[in-house]
Automatic annotation (TrEMBL):
UniProt protein name: Actin-related protein 5
Family as reported in the entry's similarity comment: Belongs to the actin family.
Annotated source species: Acyrthosiphon pisum
PANTHER family from the UniProt entry: ACTIN (PTHR11937)
InterPro entries found in the cross-reference section: Actin, ATPase_NBD
Gene3D superfamilies in UniProt: 3.30.420.40, Actin, Chain A, domain 4 (3.90.640.10)
GO aspect biological process, one term: regulation of macromolecule metabolic process
Amino acid sequence: MAEEVIILKDLKLVPDKYYDYSQTLRNSKTPIVIDNGSFTCKAGWATSSVPNLIFKNILARPRKERGKKDGETLIGNDIANIEAVRFQLKSQFDRNVITQFNVQEQIFDYTFSHLGIDSNVMSELLFECYHVPGICYGIDGLFSYQHNGHNGKTGLVVNCGHHTTHIIPVINGTPDLINSRRIDVGGYHITYYLHKLLQLKYPAHYNAITPSRAEELLYEHGFLAVHYTDALKQWSDPEYYDHNVKRIQLPYSMAVLLTPDQQRDKRREMAKKLVEMNARKRDEKLAEDEEQLHQLLMIREMIEDGEPIEEVREVLRSHGLKNEKDLRKLITDLQTRIDRAKSKIAAASLSASNVDEHVTEEPKLRLFKNKIQLPKEESISKTWLKDIYKKRQDIIDKKTVRKQRRQDMAKRGTAASLERMRLISQLARKDKRDDDFGSRDEDWDVYKVINKEGGDTDSEEEQEKISELEEVLRFYDPTFVSSNNNEEQNPKEAHQLHFGIERMRCTEVLFQPSIIGCGQGGITDTIEFILKKYNDQTANDIAENVFLTGGPTKLPDFKQRVYRELREMRPLESNINVKLSDSPFLDAWSGAREFANKQDFHKYLLTPEMYAEMGGDYFIENSCSNMYCPLPEAVQEPEGLSEQNLEI
């Protein structure tokens, strides 16, 4: 059965469409729901069943070229090739906190313009920039929790995002944000770690292994190991590895094999280009020499006409000459050089017609170290070619057999491996006091039997013989294509990645952040820490409803891994239930949409008047929001008090 080779999709982003801001939407005052994630931004009207816009929350500013205006800023799906502008990408987030508000403003511009909002209201952010009538804030993980039917229930939300993972306990429908914890590891770190692992494993394909391809491999073929240490032992078994490894085909270009006629045409074309290039250089040099000679002759005429000596000396110095003697010598040299160049040009034009004759000569077959009997007749017989093919195939078959033997020796239970161990065990049973093994010639026959199955290696002589036979076949048979398994002759296999243990090794950083140098605990370690803050009954209630949401949680066996580790940490016979979000990627937006469609939604809207009165940090709390903690007021220094009056 042939091994399956997976072709990378390399999906290109499709630009977002522009929607119409209909009169119905205007009159009904339909809320806009924005899930402003650090990986993707999902935005749409609250009346839509799915987000109208889903795009990567990044922008790219192309480098400014000298003499040109600034390039157009590209956002989200308008970036056709992310890898081409990888170093110009910008995000408004530092981990999961917005710090670059100028970038966020441009993201809002993109979002609102594609939703059809008139651009003439955009001057500053939200109230001051967009003059929105009201704002309501909420936590994405809690919106997803309510959307999946957990409203009013006790449970634990594990929200795995792009840069961070939040673990939020919920008591009777109210989030306990005091005991919530954040882990600074998310989908970005998995992708980054996988990217570096593959680049380290395949340095020859360093540039071909891009972050975008690492991301595709992660979400298409990555998984969580339920038992990481046990899985490591399984991957050390060659049979398990061969059965589970994914062979990924990188893009590559095949070398074009030319027929003898095509080779002759190519040589003729290259020869003509060289002749033309040399002729052009000679003409340019001849023109320069003639111009310089013309100037020197004019200087000589000045001398002969009796021009003032000071002017003549100044002109000579400008041409790097000291006196009239140097002038005469340089004129003679230039005239000689020009005559010689004209002679070469005339000779080259005469011989140009003979170029084709020299180019069309057949290439000669080089002499080989190994004596290969070449045919003397002009016509090559099929029998002779068939014999050359057979000799080459015999050597390749021998190499294949040896390779298979070495593989069998590495596996337990094969006939070769069992026979070798039988002989070794017999030798081990001999009395060590009278160990004279090796003193007799027949002892070395035993060594040969032990070593013959796995000790032979491919010799350089064999490889040279194959190369010489293939050279002969290429010369006499234009249809010959080498199939020898080496990187130069089989580029397809040379551009394949074996995606094996990395499939689970990269995802393990969510549960063991120390792998990438993070000093925080993993997901289940943090869950255990949080559960210890509650009494036994509350901790049991929380463990009975563990809810997973966020993009990385859709990786295979994520739910099983969390359940297994919770089962180990919780008391015997505890009831544990782990539920995965119906749509880890979209449920946060869907939950926010449902919240915006509630009858009492207006009670949670922050109005421009409230913003002006309470300040920019104020918001109205709701069942899915953070806690409002007012910023401390600045301490005003009493009048008349200065540093000079302070005593320490």
